[in-house]
């Protein structure tokens, strides 16, 4: 197969040292130099990929489950342990979150490790394989999180409020989904959702630091 050439199609200064670039594959990149301290943060926001955008999977919490699987999971480039070893070598911090509208991933690290951090997140976004063993493990983690949420009065109150505010809008469903629906999710459905949503047009890649 011919290799697709990715090039800049637009570039502009937004002020305060922020540069925005648009690539020919649809990816948006924001970069800001900040020399206050020798640290950096690498973030990727997957737009249109939250609980309100799950279509036929509404109520399954697919975006949240996929967040668990993509963050540090196996890719075609390296396995889960190799990803963890890279993160440990950076001495940084990584995490992810899901909302109604977006799924986000980040790595904070010393500035000297920013290229490795970019590589890890970029590979997660493009090449995640979601092995069956990792899928089963994270399904268990998510179900335990759901069970704990049902005993958390603040979370129950928040989810009840959403149903009162959004009578029909898909944002009425809890981000994590309903346990009876989540339990029926299959690995192939999650991978299908990954291939559909984790595309350059939905990605906003941010790099800030020294």
Structure description:
With 210 residues, the chain is of the alpha+beta class. The chain is built from 7 helices and 7 strands; from the N terminus they run ββββααββαααααβ. It has a 7-stranded mixed β-sheet with strand order 1-2-3-7-4-6-5, covered by helices on one side. It starts with 7 loop residues before the first strand and ends with a strand.
Keywords:
single chain; 210 residues; alpha+beta; 7 helices
Share of helical residues: 25-40%
**Element order, helices and strands?**
EEEEHHEEHHHHHE
Radius of gyration: 18 Å
Largest sheet: 7 strands, mixed
Strand adjacency order, main sheet: 1-2-3-7-4-6-5
Total of helices? 7
Silhouette: globular
Query: What is the straight-line distance between the termini?
Result: 38 Å
Low-confidence stretches: none
**DSSP E strands, number:** 7
Range of strand content:
15-25%
Mean pLDDT: 94
- Structural category is alpha+beta
SSE topology sketch:
Layout lengths: L7 E8 L2 E6 L4 E6 L5 E9 L14 H9 L9 H11 L2 E6 L3 E9 L3 H14 L4 H19 L2 H13 L13 H4 L4 H11 L5 E7 L1
Parallel strand pairs: 3-7
Antiparallel strand pairs: 1-2, 2-3, 4-6, 4-7, 5-6
Helix pairs in contact: 1-4, 1-7
In short:
With 210 residues, this protein is of the alpha+beta class. Helices cover 39% and strands 24% of the residues.
């Amino acid at each position: 197969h011919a290799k697709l050439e990715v090039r800049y199609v637009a570039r502009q200064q937004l002020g305060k040292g922020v540069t925005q670039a648009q690539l020919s594959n649809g990816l948006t990149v924001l970069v800001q130099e900040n020399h206050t301290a020798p640290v950096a943060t690498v973030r990727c926001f997957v737009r249109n990929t939250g609980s309100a955008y799950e279509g036929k999977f509404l109520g399954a919490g697919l975006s949240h489950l996929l967040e668990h699987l993509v963050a540090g999971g196996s890719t075609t480039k390296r396995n889960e342990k190799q990803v963890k070893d890279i993160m440990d070598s950076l001495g940084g911090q990584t995490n992810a979150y899901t909302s109604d509208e977006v799924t986000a991933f980040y790595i904070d690290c010393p500035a000297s490790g920013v290229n490795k951090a970019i590589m890890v997140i970029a590979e997660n976004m493009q090449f995640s394989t979601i092995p069956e063993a990792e899928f089963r493990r994270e399904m268990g983690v998510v179900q335990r999180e759901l069970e704990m949420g049902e005993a958390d009065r603040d979370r129950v109150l928040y989810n009840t409020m959403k149903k009162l505010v959004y009578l029909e809008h898909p944002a009425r469903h809890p981000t994590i989904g309903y346990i009876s629906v989540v339990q029926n999710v299959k690995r192939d459905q999650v991978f299908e959702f990954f291939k559909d949503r984790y595309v350059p047009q939905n990605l906003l890649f941010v790099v800030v630091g020294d």
